[in-house]
Amino acid sequence: MFVKTPLLLAAVGAFALSGCMSDQGYGYSNPNDPNANARTGAITGAVVGGLAGALSGGRGAFGKTVVGAAAGGVVGAIAGGALDRQAKDLRSGLGDDNITVVNTGNELVVSMPQDILFATDSTEVQPSLQRELAAVAQNLRQYPDSLVTVIGHTDNVGTATYNQDLSQRRADAVSAILLQDGVRASRLIAYGRGESQPVATNLTPEGRAQNRRVEIHIHPNNG
Q1: Tens-digit pLDDT profile for residues 164-181
Q2: Bridge partners of 166?
Q3: Which long-range contacts link 157-163 to residues 24+ away (Cβ below 8 Å)?
Q4: More confident call, 131 vs 64
Q5: What is the DSSP track for the chain?
């Protein structure tokens, strides 16, 4: 019976804090609050740490919950603050307003429209975007403790097989430039999603243009 109390408290805390984060807009990039994601990391880390302590059981479960929450909060705050700084530096290094950098609180997502990256049906990155990718690579070298996933996406024009292959080749092309600009191969993985993950409707030219993109996901390496 003793174990159930801290476990219940940790679970209730998780729901309450997640509601707080939602109400305050935490978990998403807030350009007016440079510490927003550090707080998100602290809250998330505290919840996860508290649950881990509670689930470990035993008579000391309550103490483990408190210690786990504190430790998780410190680790989460550090990770969240690092993402805030990296996002700020990355935005300042990019010169093309069509490229977006979103800080979700857990990772950075750099989204590049394929229409500015590649000519139609091409997998050769345009020279102007090679300079932007060099800026991304410089940022990744400046913040070496992260893992990088490059994901290609297309609209639904053409066959699914063709789009899958094209998205993979375009992700590989972007990844190759990052490697060429000094990002370690051990940090990088590239794959295509084809037309399977649209972010807008494929029924309009504007929507299809949004779906044709390459995303660079930058994940803190907490291992």
Answers
A1: 999 999 999 999 999 999
A2: none
A3: 157/202, 157/208, 160/194, 160/195, 163/194, 163/195
A4: 131
A5: -TTHHHHHHHHHHHHHHHHHHHHHTTTS--TT-TTHHHHHHHHHHHHHHHHHHHHT-STTHHHHHHHHHHHHHHHHHHHHHHHHHHHHHHHHH---TT-EEEE-SS-EEEEEEHHHHS-TT--SPPHHHHHHHHHHHHHHHHS-SEEEEEEEE--SSS-HHHHHHHHHHHHHHHHHHHHHTT--GGGEEEEE-TTSS-SS-SSSHHHHHHHSEEEEEEEE---
The rounded distance, in Å, linking the Cα atoms of 152 and 211 is 10
